[in-house]
Specification:
Layout lengths: L2 H16 L4 E4 L4 E6 L3 H11 L9 E2 L15 H10 L4 E6 L6 H4 L4 E5 L4 H10 L2 E2 L14 H8 L5 E2 L11 E5 L5 E5 L13
Parallel strand pairs: 1-7, 3-5, 4-8
Antiparallel strand pairs: 1-2, 2-6, 3-6, 4-5, 8-9
Helix pairs in contact: 1-5
């Protein structure tokens, strides 16, 4: 996608996302159904659209480590150092998030996964609209859409917009959390292989 084209696309979709809209966009992994993570009604709409298990939290995309503060997450110096080595990347990190304010995201599990993507176009959008939920563009249990046409077969006119970026194919993000020893523990192998050193050392 050309830079000027993406700039134009952001001008049209950012205002929609800011007021609670939902759309299908290319993420750093696959096409995602995106909506403001800060808007409870928007998040509920995404759950309904995807027929997602209502007890299953979604990964939240952020544009910097500072975004974690919005969710009451305070990093220790060692955690920040580790994240600076890991992010930005196709790596999602699980944190405790007990605040009732974010129950529409953690679904009572009191943990949330966040990802700071390396995709500059996506980060540019996140800086404009704030953190987004972005589950893959498919109905629960179905094959993730690799093109916007496949996504449209799932959602039709039920989303507010689609962004076409050709065919996307990727493994899901690697899912990790900090263990009690302060080191990262791999919960799901994915697109990024995390070596034990230096990232965990």
């Amino acid at each position: 996608m050309q830079k000027d084209t993406w700039t134009q696309i952001q001008k049209s979709i950012a205002p929609i996302l800011k007021v609670g809209g939902v759309g299908v966009v290319p993420t750093d992994t696959l096409y995602g159904v995106v909506g403001s993570a800060l808007n409870k009604k928007t998040v509920e709409r995404v759950y309904v659209l995807r027929k997602r298990d209502l007890k299953k939290p979604m990964i939240v995309l952020i544009s910097s480590l500072n975004d974690l503060k919005k969710f009451g997450i305070v990093l220790s110096a060692s955690q920040k150092k580790t994240l600076d080595e890991v992010w930005p990347a196709k790596v999602s990190v699980v944190f405790e998030c007990k605040l009732k304010k974010w129950e529409h995201l953690h679904r009572g599990q009191k943990t949330l996964a966040f990802r700071f993507p390396a995709d500059k176009e996506l980060v540019s959008l996140l800086k404009k609209v704030g953190p987004l939920v972005a589950p893959s563009a498919n109905l629960a249990g179905k094959k993730p859409a690799e093109t916007y046409v496949e996504a449209k077969k799932y959602f039709g006119e039920d989303v507010d917009f689609y962004v076409d970026c050709g065919k996307l194919k990727s493994k899901p993000s690697t899912l990790v959390e900090f263990g009690k020893d302060g080191k990262l523990k791999i919960l799901r192998e994915g697109a990024v292989r995390i070596a034990k050193k230096p990232l965990l050392g």
